[in-house]
Amino acid sequence: MPGAPTASRAPGWFRTAVFYEIPVRSFYDSNGDGVGDLPGVTAKLDHLADLGVGAIWLLPFYRSPWKDEGYDISDHFSVDPSLGTLDDLDRLVAEAHARGIRVLGDLVTNHVSIDHPWFQEARRDRGSRFRSWFLWSDTGKEFSRTRVIFRDFEVKNWSWDETAGQYYFHRFYASQPDLNYDSPEVRAEMLRVARFWLARGLDGFRCDAVPYLYKREGTRCQSLPEVHRFFHELRAMMDEEHPGTVLVAEANQSIPETVPYFGEGSEFQMVMHFPLMPNLFLALGENDPRRIRHVLRATLPTPRGSGWAYFLRNHDEVTLEQVSDDEREMFLWLYGRDPRTVIHGGIRRRLAPMLEGDDETVAMMIAFSLSLPGAMFLYYGDEIGMGDRLDLPDRDGVRTPMQWTAGTNGGFSEATPERLVRPLVLDPRYAPAARNVEDQRTRPGSLLSQVRRLVQVYSAHPSEFGPDGIHFVEPGSSTVFAFWRVGTARRILCLYNFGRERSEGTVPLDAGLTLGPDLLAGSATLSRRPDGLDYGLGGRRFVWLGFSASPTGRVGGD
Q: Which of the residues 68, 208, 267, 383 is marked catalytic?
């Protein structure tokens, strides 16, 4: 039902929403064919509403041969039959909007499937209009400075095509030829793709692999000025034709290359915070949060009307592209000692196994991400501490079926492909019997209960946990990271102990803080005195504390 009512699109709605990432094939199987589907997502919207989710991000649901979890698209204008129909998508959007949940698609702009009709015609006929939609070479030696991303599977970015009689360029797998954005027809077609899905009620897109659209000889072929011009054009179209929709950038770059994707407020409204993510885990492993402060100071504030998209884990490996060689070595020592976890130079682990299965540490890391200026993206299953499957190839191990019940298959049928349902022999702590939604939904103290409570507190304080107003403060402990979130009449003090041992310290308090502290979330021992707050925090624990302030009240920090 194109044109179905949308959820509220008040300006800046995305800056305080909690986003939830869903690989449709792994979420819920509604018809018993062994594959998750769009009706399955619709069936579980009440779980997401109960969790407090404000938006969902659907991984590619378009027609695909599924060689790369749907990121190899063979038809941009249809739903893959294994996942449902366009009508199913329309129902999902309508039901989500009825619950106040927005729906984002995944806009894959860089490449298509080798099976796509565009590429098939281009390879067969040099005179075809589609020939110029791709990059061809007689030698395969151009763009030699371009980094090979999937170096565990590809040795170069050019592959020979016997039918075409030339090499074609691919930034990722050889089954995913890159589009040529120097072609005006390609640019126009991708705008048409975006319009098609926005007209069906989608509230925006997470845009895949945005830095790589343009190729220029003598460069690394990433984050070129032309890339920004294209997404500026896409943003302008969306603002004019579908106001209130949002663009989220996947731009895994250094800080100086990542920040410009906001375009001073005219490009992406949200950018995924790749510079912060590995530093969070390094800080935890080193029992020292100083590196986090450095990254946040370098990336805050964002342009007006924009915000960071924070995430702890997603459907890919933990990428280490933006850390130093020494930091990469430390990260691998901390989290990748099992060689099966290392892929593409990163770590293919889920959140809970990386944090040794400790629910309190998982809750602390989620609380930290929630409390920063911007919005958090939560990966499906992390709210119950799901594990991973190191016996599965590539990144399939972090894309296993959502564990709704204690059944062996996590709610999926026996028809599910073997790669998804072989017994969880590696670590029974994360098996469906040990971690599932049905059990955790009603059990006090479960991880799901903790995450639900965190989201409730976060949502109840939109002024304090808004897009602005963060002040770092010295906590009197080398393992504790502390900051104030500042609202109109209240302040929230956030304390996080990144050390394994209990830590004590004192946070200075301004005289303008008239009442408090009120315990909002977490736990700590507290003692207030006239000019400060003495606290004690357990190892890898946190606390959120509310204070009331007089109109002229200040908070310490910077």
A: 208
